[in-house]
Amino acid sequence: MSKTILIVEDEPILREIMKDYLLDEGYAVLEAGDGKQALALFQEHEVDLIILDIMLPELDGWAVCRRIRKSSNVPIIMLTARSDEDDTLLGFELGADDYVTKPYSPPILLARAKRLLENRRVSGQESDTLSDGGIAIHFPSRTVTVDGTNCSLTHTEFEILAYLMKNKGIIITREQLITKVWGYDFVGDDRTVNSHIRNLRSKLGESARCIVTVVRSGYKFEDQP
Questions:
Q1: Residue 179: DSSP 8-state
Q2: Are strands 28-32 and 76-80 parallel, antiparallel or unpaired?
Q3: Of the candidates 146, 139, 189, the residue with the CA atom closest to the CA atom of residue 162
Q4: pLDDT per position in the chain (225 positions), as tens?
Q5: Is residue 144 within 8 Å of 135, Cβ to Cβ?
Q6: Sign (positive/negative) of CA torsion 12, 36, 56, 118?
Q7: Does residue 213 contact residue 193 with C-beta atoms inside 8 Å?
Q8: 214 vs 169: CA distance, rounded Å
Q9: Which pairs with CB-CB distance under 8 Å and at least 24 residues apart come from 78-81?
Q10: Where in 12-138 does DSSP place strands (E)?
Q11: What is this structure's pTM?
């Protein structure tokens, strides 16, 4: 069954270009030209990934991302005409998984979409569960619980947590996390990783102490007394 990607872009020409690339790769495509239409389509259809422009009529991309994250961890790639780092970090703080600045190369955008979908697929093929420090990951459903209580993570937060837990006791550098989670073509810096780690810790509560910062090195997952 083909994956469904929702394109949210108010410029018809850009939307059409993206749609053609995705259709050529065998994806099903939904299109929205404004934020309200995007939310309506998301509620009506099963969507596997969203490509979301920030500057939209009705509701902007920030508002759309914020509302979707209240109920779903579907992968979201945000598009912007600005390259301001603060905008990028705000997108990640709201729960975006990747961020692409206009003008962009459609093949690169497609590659990033494929990577997010592939990460999601591979995670579901691993051993069913992984638990430690009060945190339990169920890979087939991509759900996380903390002391038995459901913990809603974004796609990227899930990938970071799973990678750290699988490598318990090993220092993972920020560069390793970027390569594993975003890929070699990711354009970002340590602030991107730090932002996601901060969001992840805030959701894990007391169990966040298992994610240890190793100064000038990176992070590692380890039991805490």
A1: I
A2: unpaired
A3: 139
A4: 689 999 999 999 999 999 999 999 999 999 999 999 999 999 999 999 999 999 898 899 989 998 998 888 889 998 887 665 666 667 777 778 888 888 888 888 888 898 888 876 655 445 578 888 899 998 878 889 999 899 988 888 998 999 999 899 999 988 888 888 877 556 566 777 888 899 999 999 999 999 999 988 899 999 876
A5: yes
A6: negative
A7: no
A8: 11
A9: 78/52, 78/53, 78/54, 79/9, 79/51, 79/52, 79/53, 79/54, 79/104, 80/53, 80/54, 80/55, 81/55
A10: 28-32, 49-53, 76-80, 98-101, 129-132, 135-138
A11: 0.65
- Residue 136 CA, chain-centre distance (Å), reads 20
Sheet holding 135-138, edge to edge: 129-132, 135-138, 143-146, 149-151
Give SS3 for 131: strand
